[in-house]
Amino acid sequence: MFRRPGADRLIPLPGRESQGQVTSVTNILSAGRNYWARSETHDAGVLVDARDYYRELYRAIRKARRSIVIMGWQFDSDVTLLRGDDLAEAEGGEVRLLPLLDQMCRDNPELHVYILAWDFSMLLAMEREWMQHLLFNWTTNERLRFRFDSSSPLYAAHHQKLVVVDGVQAFTGGMDVCDCRWDDRDHPARSKLRCDSGRDPHGPYHDVQTVLTGPAVKPLSELFEARWAHSGGGEIHLEPVARDDVTFEATMPAPPGPVAISRTFGKTILPPQEEVQEIRALYVDAIAAAERFIYIENQYFSSRAIYDALVKRMRTADRGRLQVMLVLPRQPEALREQIAMGVAQVRLLRALREVASETGHGFAVYGSAAKADDGSDVFTYIHSKVMVVDDTFLTVGSANTTNRSLGLDSELNLSWEAQAPGDAVSKAIRRIRVSLMAEHAGLAGVSALRPLVEGKHVVETLDRVAQEGLLRLRPHPLETVFDQNPLFKPLEPEDFLIDPEESVLDESLFEALHKGDDGLFASGVRLLSRWLVGPSCDAPPHSAILPCVPGQEEGGAAEP
């Protein structure tokens, strides 16, 4: 855990178990196990797709007085925040990220901007904007500071996405501010507005972010302070600014009441940091508590821990039948991801489908697509990280359902939990879930949405829509790049799954540094073997098709 003076203040608030309330909702949130801090918000909202997020980010930047801090997996200096009809709001002013931040610093001598980016793997060098350290630091105002953070464990990534403005407004979720991410909720097959700075337009893209104000911003500010110091940037203190003009237009209101903050950090030796796996516990506990349904939309699914939790819940004989629904991209974007993660994903999902069939639970995996002019399907790339359980629990964040995101990379999720079915929190969660499902399915109107609202036969409803193929929803093909090309099939890996849960840089390597060349070389060979193949494990007895997958989860080199 990151520590600096005063960090011990960030003890999570008591859970509902201390409030003495008896409800019919199983408590999922557990202080110290699956969340780090729990605080009230003055206002909170959900921003669906980058049009809504970038517009609200632009407005927050324009109102900033003292500080803007941003950290993420990737940034691009020239991303256009306002497009199409939204451009009128700028009145001809600057709308590109870095020039806008620079202009704000030049216009306001009290404003300081801090940007912290993951010091990415060289595997991604051709996909990143070059010379960013020089571009951000030497072509802008001196009060705009940019740093690369290389403090993650070996082969891990810093994947938390966070913006805090003046210590009073925060954004976090699945979205970075970078190229090839902008889209609106219509997700047409083709859109010129997706063309950014002269680039070719990318395809449909879906993501989810949250925005909030109030006491919950403070721990998020302190998280950035700790990350900045941990990266070598020194001490900064983000004191909140007294403001009465902090407003935003969310796609939908977030649930009222307290929000829980959960994290993932991998263990490092230098600088010293113990592992934190709160999000792993959060997902597992939420699945275990599910009584009616589980809805997940995510960029990947390769987490052995989540697979095991779903199997355990479905095989529990004295529990009710579940409806489990996943919305995923048709396949990972890059070939390296299709090999590294796609094979594990397809094998796990096929095995879950078999378990659900054996045990009588509903289970379905979907994609979402628009029709091109030639009649072909153009699939929306799902990048969001959302889970809803029984309309009484919601989590939104940066963590994918992969091993590395739950055990190795740095991740950040926000969660809400109802106290009783049908209370204000539960109704807000239901509105968010139904709205997301309707977006993916292309459903509209009271009668079409009623089965989604009631939540009783959602899988049957969505299956029917997907099989008809008249709207947006499609059955997920559950195929790998090796299935698509018979020539590749003999090359399909059995154990070559680059999705570790634990850090490759552990005590064995630290000790080897003191044992001479022979010890270091031998340890290096062992570590390379672990990195490529992963630790040995046994496939569950009910499925012979499962690979040997290390413990648990994304971010990093495997995510765009």
From TrEMBL:
InterPro entries: PLD-like_dom, PLipase_D/transphosphatidylase, PLipase_D_fam. PROSITE patterns: PLD. Keywords: Hydrolase, Lipid metabolism, Repeat. CDD domains: PLDc_vPLD1_2_like_bac_1 (cd09140), PLDc_vPLD1_2_like_bac_2 (cd09143). The keyword Hydrolase applies. GO terms for molecular function: phospholipase D activity. One of its GO terms (biological process) is phospholipid catabolic process. One of its GO terms (cellular component) is plasma membrane. Residues 154-181, 378-405 form the PLD phosphodiesterase domain. It holds the Pfam family PLDc_2. PANTHER family: PHOSPHOLIPASE D. This is Phospholipase. It comes from Corallococcus terminator. The lineage of its organism: Bacteria, Pseudomonadati, Myxococcota, Myxococcia, Myxococcales.
